[in-house]
Amino acid sequence: MISVVVPVHNEERTVALLFEEIEAALEPLGTPWETIFVDDGSTDGSFAALTRLHARRDTVRVVRLRRNFGKAAALMAGFAQADGDVVVTIDADLQDDPAEIPRLLAKLEEGFDLVSGWKARRRDPWSRRILSRLFNWATSRVSGIRLHDLNSGLKAYRAEVARGVRIYGELHRFLPVLAHYRGYRIAELPVNHRPREHGRSRYGLERLLRGFLDLLTVSFIGRYRHRPLHLFGGLGLLLGAAGFAVLVYLTVLKATGAAIGHRPLLTLGVLLIVVGMQFFSLGLLSEMVTSHHEERAGERERAELHVEEILS
Question: Within a 10 A sphere around the Cβ of 282, how many other Cβ atoms?
Fold first, then answer.
């Protein structure tokens, strides 16, 4: 079973056309499939169009959210309803080409857990292309996963990946990063990208800035979620060591008869040690909270989350 999840927000004119293209791409495969449209609080006639489509096709399911919660919430709602062994996501604006889905599925069968589409020849305005390249470059450097297009809406997942990675806010941009941190194998495939003919893009500078803040969140979750003391304790030790060095230097000056009472360096040294102790204490408290959470989750359950295969 193949489940295609399509988040929809004010795409009344495209949903029927998109479904026809998905149908043309998947029918020749001879594999059971379904399409799950998630109406993310559309204010136009998108839900009415989806209702008509659902009435005509047995392979169409529609999920309607109470209001516009964002793409991450729409994807999570679609993942929860998907029955497929493989889940494909695609945007509803017709810029992603459904004819590329069989190629993604074939790449998935090579042993990967997530295959992300790469819009190698992006058909967007130059301003959006520049912002996208900047975002992808920064994300690749910080996360350590080398992908050209992390934010592509066209992706194929094994079901355990789609259901095992939890996203909220705007963390849908970092699904490959979150999957990579959990040990899944990630691949990228160049795909066809088409000019936008309906509606307008909601990607801009504001979303880029929010994306960089989300990148810090994802990096912290991936690297330090189970060892917060390594981050906060490391910063605390670094600041404390710098403050201690400053105070040792001032102590030597004092021993030689120099006055240090009015030196700003004295205040800086004390401040560095105090802030360092605060960071270190924050790390210890975070470790206690993490340890308590892990104990409640149970050792066996936690181990099963990371086991890929058992030969018995």
Answer: 17
- Of 195, 214, 203, the closest CA to residue 131 belongs to 203
**Based on the domain organization, do 194 and 55 belong to the same domain?**
yes
In sequence order, the 6+-apart residues with CB closer than 8 A to the CB of 135 are: 150, 151, 173, 208, 211, 212
Same domain, 176 and 246: no
* Contacting residues for 71 by C-beta, under 8 A, at least 6 apart: 7, 9, 40, 170, 172
Q: Other C-beta atoms within 10 Å of 6: how many?
A: 29
| Containing structural domain, residue 23 | 2-224
Give pLDDT < 50 ranges for the chain: 300-305, 310-312
CB 75 within 8 A of CB 63: no
Q: Is the pTM of this model over 0.85?
A: no
pLDDT tens digit sequence for 12-36: 889 999 999 999 999 999 999 999 9
Residue type, 240: G
Q: Is 63 left (phi over 0), alpha (psi -120 to 50) or beta?
A: beta
Strand segments, DSSP code E, in the chain are 2-8, 33-39, 60-64, 86-89, 114-118, 155-158, 186-190
Whether 63 and 47 share a structural domain: yes
| Per-residue exposure over 26-46, b if at least 16 CB sit within 10 Å of its own CB, e if not | beeeeeebbbbbbbbbbeeeb
